[in-house]
Amino acid sequence: MGLGWVEAVRAVVQRVSQASVRVEGEVRGEIGAGLCVLLGVARGDDVTAAERLAGRVARLRIFENDEGRFDRSLVDVGGAALVISQFTLLANTAKGNRPSFTDAAPPEEAESLYERFCAALRVVGVEVATGVFGARMRLELTNEGPVTIVLDT
Which residue, 10, 24, 37, 9, is CA-closest to 141? Predict the structure, then answer.
């Protein structure tokens, strides 16, 4: 579908000890230990892709076991997820200095898939906090490790 290097729903996942998001100075979502998930939805993405990515996030083994090895998932540790919509993850910077966001899904499509992603996390028992879709947000977090993983479907 002409998406260039963007193949599908994209998530940047950060292991955190805490994270919160503010909109117009008001805390709209916050979690303790778990994952901060920045989620970008591309044109042509579908419900299956969003739900599949949510499953991968929930099962991603980036929490340490007793021996210090990455062997536990968000579900295993009972952690929460702060999920933030971020169309800028789909920026194409191949030409010039100004990013192009034409690969990002239109807001009405992206919001629906963002909501399905969050719902799919809840189905597997993950507590989910969110920001406000399409709003200008201020995100604060403490990245543990640091551990940051990029996932695509």
Answer: 37
Which residue is associated with the tokens 């996390």? 121
| pTM (two decimals) | 0.92
Question: Of the candidates 119, 62, 53, 60, which has an alpha carbon nearest to the alpha carbon of residue 89?
Answer: 53
- Active-site position among 14, 86, 130, 153: 86
Q: Annotated catalytic, 18?
A: no
Establish whether 88 is a catalytic residue: yes
In a domain, 2, yes or no: no
Q: Which of 18, 63, 70, 87 is catalytic?
A: 87
Domain range holding 87? 10-152
Exactly one of 88, 93, 142, 148 is catalytic; name it.
Answer: 88
- Tell me whether residue 132 is in a domain: yes
The CATH number of whichever domain residue 24 belongs to comes to: 3.50.80.10
Divide the 153 residues of the chain into consecutive groups of 10 and give the mean pLDDT of each group: 56 98 97 98 92 97 96 98 96 92 94 97 98 96 96 86
